[in-house]
Design brief:
With 711 residues, the chain is of the alpha/beta class. The chain is built from 22 helices and 35 strands. A nine-stranded mixed sheet has the order 15-16-19-22-25-28-31-34-35. Strands 5-4-1-6-12-8-13 form a seven-stranded mixed sheet, with helices on both faces. It has a six-stranded parallel sheet with strand order 17-20-23-26-29-32, with no helix packed on it. The protein starts with a helix and ends with a helix.
Length: 711
Amino acid sequence: MSSKKNKATGGSKRREDEQRENILQAVVLTDSYQTRFRPLTLETPRCLLPLANIPVIDYTLEFLSLAGIEDVFIFASTHAEKIEQHIRDSKWSLASSPFKKCQIVMSPSSMSVGDAMRELDGKGMITTDFLLVNGDFVSNLPLEDVLKAHRDRRTKDKNAIMTMILREAEFEHRAKARGESGAFVIDEASGRCVHYEEMRHSGDRTVLLPPDLIKHHPQLRIRTDLIDCQVDICSPDVPALFTENFDYQHIRRHFLHGILTDYELYGKIIHTHIVTGSYAARVRSLQTYDAVSRDIIGRWTYPMVPDSNLAPNQNYTHERGNIYKEDDIILARSCTVNRNTILGRGTSIGERSVIGNCIIGAGVEIGKDVLLEGVYIWDGVVIGDGCQIQKSIIANDAVLGKNVVVAEGSVISYGVKIADGIQVKPFSRITAHSKRKNRGEHADDEAASGSEYANSESESEDEQNSAMQDSLVYSTHHLNLSDSSISTVPGDDSDSYSDESSPAGGLIARTGKAGRSDSTTSFESVDEAWHREASTSLFNAMENDQPAEVANLELNGLRMTANANFSQVRRAVTAALVNRIEQVVAKESISNGAAASKVLQRWESTIKRCVFDRKDQAEFLLLCQRECCSRKAGESILLGIVQCLNNTMEVVDEEAVNDWWLDERSSKEERMAAVRKPTEAFVNWLAEAESESESEEGDDEATDDEDDDEE
């Protein structure tokens, strides 16, 4: 009897262990241990900043709940009391919470990820494999497959201590942080990461591989095209290894690099899981704040979109053009709300104001004749009549007087008051934090209650460089950049489409052909990144059959935001048009000429907004020719474009066609000459027709002279 009882007890114990093993815990790090969001984070932790009018951490917790996580440990350092209060007041603390446990771990003294991991290890809170995420993570990724793969590897080999979840993306994907990136060297057969190097944009970008790696791993792939959200499935060994190595502070730069470099010492294995079909990004900088906000509006993060109403008492509705509105909104009859805009509860907008690509919080008052483009306005802000704001953040309870101009890339922090007529320079960061702390100062006596935020002496040079690269609008004033770049379309070594294009005389000087983003370590220039964004945005509008006037407005907004010239706009338009023509041919099974005619006439207004004179017309044809060079049916597409623009639409004159044809750039390269060859007959016909017309005019004049003589 006793033996049966012991067997039963042993079986029960094993079942409990198995059940416990299947419970995945999650550790949420709320502190980034960086200063990129200052001065905003002087008063509010990054994880509580509003993202599409919801605190960022709520997206992270929503992801964990959808993934089936049961135990959540929220590790709070800076502003820990505010984070604790938010969790207490949220649905995550209710009896109906999807989590069995949602515990705040207070650690004000932690200064790095390494400190947090050592403290977790010291408290013995981690008992099974756990998911390590940051409190600024936004994703709709299902975890079932990656969890199963991780557990299978752990069953076979206990030294497989970690699986990194990485997202595949284009090199210049807007959700990829500009400030830093990593090179992951991955064994193709096993998915194991065997080497890692962090690459800073301002430093050496060379990756040196130990010779032994190639000997032991014949199939290696160097990936620089991955968005690393620092989401890892870890075994309890990971915090213990941080405890053993007190110099480990950063999860990638120190821990990952150190464990892989010292494989002979530790014998630990780290795998990767590459995500391709789901959304995953971190709000780790102002640049990615902007990118993720736009992705939420564009519904890439579904089901985490505004009209899902994740926060209590929200009731957003989704309207055409990705406009989201809550209740109690007051819109003047003559105001304009353009696409990709969120309007929070109780917002009012005055007469003749124009708003586009903006996220407006609750209780915001916007006056008359206000222009807002690409702006994030948080709760309780007041904006006076005649204000103009571009690509900036205006934090809670700020007050802007009449006719205030806020230039792009600016951050106006909490409670700042700006007097009438003030012009805020680009990339300004204004805060009233110090004045609220020093109550002896009389802020009301000044034009603005805030002051320019100065970088702290404690901020490293890397942090300051990252802040400049990761602002809402990328500034290159601090860099010494050449004009060379990698084009998204194969081009020659030195194209110069117009004299106004760049300091060097060319639109974008290109030094090579586009290749796979995971096999190159070259970086696109800022102009090239703008081209990619603008052409993609316009192509998406074409693909979704949006009104041309809406697409034109967005393209113009992109041009103004980046201070792009019209040569750059023409290049983006030609890229989108040729892509769309190819797509129409494939979808509708019509000829290239018919597709060109259909697409060009549909988007005639877009073409006319960037082509103004004969020189522009010739350049537009040259850009179309270059786009067609890389296309399978480029010759017939180019012929269709030239015929339609000249003969059908009369957008391009015969003189401009002749200028383009005689331009040596259109025939200097073999591939450029080849792609235009079928168009030669049409150009000759135009020349002959022009010659005949001139001859007839001459004959008419001669006849008139004879008639005059007879009289």
